[in-house]
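COMPLEX REQUEST
Ligand: NAP
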Amino acid sequence: MMKAVTRSGDGGPEVLQIDEVPAPHPTETQLLVDVRATALNRVDLIQRRGGYPVPLGESEILGLEIAGTVTEMGTDVTGFEKGDPVFGLVGGGGYAEKAVIDYRMAMVIPDEWSFEHAAAIPEVFFTANENIFTLARLAAGETILIHAGGSGVGTAGIQIARRAGARVFVTAGTTDKIDRCVALGAIAGINYKQADFVTEIERLTDGNGVDVVLDFIGAPYLARNLQILKTRGRLSQVGLMGGSTTEIDLGVVMRKRLQIIGSVMRPQSLEEKIAITQRFVERWLPELKAGKLQPVIDTVFPLAQAREAHTYMEDNRNFGKIILTV
Ligand SMILES: NC(=O)c1ccc[n+]([C@@H]2O[C@H](COP(=O)([O-])OP(=O)(O)OC[C@H]3O[C@@H](n4cnc5c(N)ncnc54)[C@H](OP(=O)(O)O)[C@@H]3O)[C@@H](O)[C@H]2O)c1
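STATUS: Structure written out below.
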């Protein structure tokens, strides 16, 4: 048995509670990990409210990333030992004392890192890398607008886009978040509560627009995102915090030869997620190890305060990641 955060039903943070539940057993290719830290992701709030069906075969327990130590290994696992400190992306089950992870998705935690530091990385760096580079093909010298620059994904995206030689603009809802995005490498930020981002992007780019938009807002931003894209621009749709249904003029997509690309990481196959992990390991893990990139940690809560942590995220108070220590 183990302690884990469970849900008494669908609803607000008050449905979260600590419970004794059966511990998971590793399959042939999985590691059993004593979880020391996990992190919140926006989708946890949606799952808590009952709005996200758990992919088949995944844990019902919240939590998409873990950092901890290996305590058991499946018979086909190679390259790991009991006691190894590891971190990585999981399909669920992170808000618990124990979780399983396929060994091909587990990464060894460098000596200098804390478990909290490691737990802040997988979901947001994988998401940013896949959507900005693999799918939207941002290149050096291009420009990108990252909406919700202060989100976990935004803070990772700003850093890797800048590191790749792109010019980064952001939107955020407070001056403080914009200042912190600029400190991370953005050229300028737009407070979307005070200004229209189309007008501001046109001003900041001398009317040229941007090559790529990374968007988490969805319906209310779609037409405006297309408006600020250059010819052959790419819109990477990764979240729908403002809604999913709207109407647009498809003429603009054709005239400017735009591409609208959508993706969700969680329901992808194990093979696809192993490839996503690998691309991150090759391109960005060395930069993180060298300290050239940093996960941005806003607050650390103990697992028992998962309710408070969810309320904090729901109030949009975080800049970067919220960690739960186990
Ligand atoms: N597709 C995928 O595979 C994938 C994977 C991971 C995350 N995501 C998505 O990426 C987004 C960010 O996730 P996260 O965990 O990094 O989020 P987060 O840390 O909770 O940050 C979200 C931020 O977005 C802003 N925001 C919220 N509602 C908004 C609205 N209606 N309009 C404009 N801004 C709004 C808030 O900042 P302000 O103060 O600036 O308003 C909030 O702090 C989410 O939509 C999530 O679902 C997608």
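REMARKS: Residues 86 and 264 are 24 Å apart (CA to CA). The first helix runs from residue 42 to 48.
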